[in-house]
Amino acid sequence: MNHYFNAVKVLKYNFLEMKIWLYISAIALLVSCTAENGDIITAQNTTLQSYLRSHNLTYEQVGSVFHAIQSKGYGYKPNIGDTVVFNYTEYLYNGSTPIMSNVLDTINRYHIDTTFFKPVASVVVIGQTDLIGGLRDGLMLLQQGEVGDIYMTSDVGYGAKEAGPVPANSMLHFRIQILYVNGASIQNEKASIFNYISSNSIPDTTLQSQGYYFIPLTQHVDTLATLGDTVYVHYNCYTLDGTSLSAISVSNNNLASFVVGKGKPVQGVDLAFLQMASRDTAEVILPSCLAYGNSGLTDIVGPYQPLRYTVVLDSIKGH
Questions:
Q1: Are residues 143 and 235 in the same domain?
Q2: 290 and 237 part of one domain
Q3: Is residue 2 part of a domain?
Q4: Is the pTM of this model over 0.85?
């Protein structure tokens, strides 16, 4: 990634003791403790919703944090206790001039003063590093490899007090690129996948760039599915120890249909459709970040649970 430096640990600062704004926003490690007026926050939520819709941005809202994907990533989402390495540029919610950034191109373009910080990727531990609440919660919505926008109301930003060039009660926008995510649960899952791949002699050539394994079982000379196509499929889902998950499988007597590119039934199977033609069969091995993630699915799939699918693509209806 051009113009990005190696990651270093983010310095911690105390907001009440800071006198220099560059210390504050360069690393975005502030905890806003000022009570907010509920009416202000309600109005800000409405403002952000209207702003995002007016810019034709598809977003998810979690509390007072809004997440819009700019460039998709396929890696793990950060969780409490995980180490995250990321780049960011910070704006007022409707601003075009950065307040602060650790991206070298942006620093040079806008002549951001780096006297009090180094323009390197930020490294934090979720739940341990003191981050403003909106940034902490926003990071946990992005996947490794993603470039995304996080918008937030002022109660999870810098609060009701002026902070350097940021007025009191300001809504904020962070453009974030997640470079790396790591934690104990991620390492354990990766080890279980490695053991499965090794013990079943699955060749490395089946590993795709997005992090899943695609093993063709039967192939036909025909047109592959493309984005926007509707595919009619049936599939069986298993844990890596062979346990059948019938609750999230589809029998061949009851075909399911999906629009390719919508991430259904899970992100990894959706990606696999793009490598399949009508009547093809494939085995797909997914890390949890391409399936049900770090939360799992009720009592069916556990957190950080890798899965194996046998997929039969019955037919394709072009868009």
A1: no
A2: yes
A3: no
A4: yes
DSSP 63: T
pLDDT tens over the chain, length 319 residues = 333 323 323 333 333 333 334 344 444 444 444 444 789 999 999 999 999 999 999 999 999 999 999 999 999 999 999 999 999 999 999 999 999 999 999 999 999 888 877 889 999 999 999 999 999 999 999 999 999 999 999 999 999 988 888 999 999 999 999 999 999 999 999 999 999 999 999 999 999 999 999 999 999 999 999 999 999 999 999 999 999 999 999 998 889 999 999 999 999 999 999 999 999 999 999 999 999 999 999 999 999 999 999 999 999 998 6
Per residue in 147-161, is it b (16+ CB within 10 Å) or e — as a string? ebbbbbbbbbbbbee
- Could you tell me if residue 218 is inside a domain? yes
Q: Give the residue among 306, 304, 308 at the shortest CA–CA distance from 293.
A: 304
Q: Quote the domain boundaries for residue 236.
A: 185-317
Query: What's the domain count of the chain?
Result: 2
Q: Residue 304 belongs to a domain with what CATH number? A: 3.10.50.40
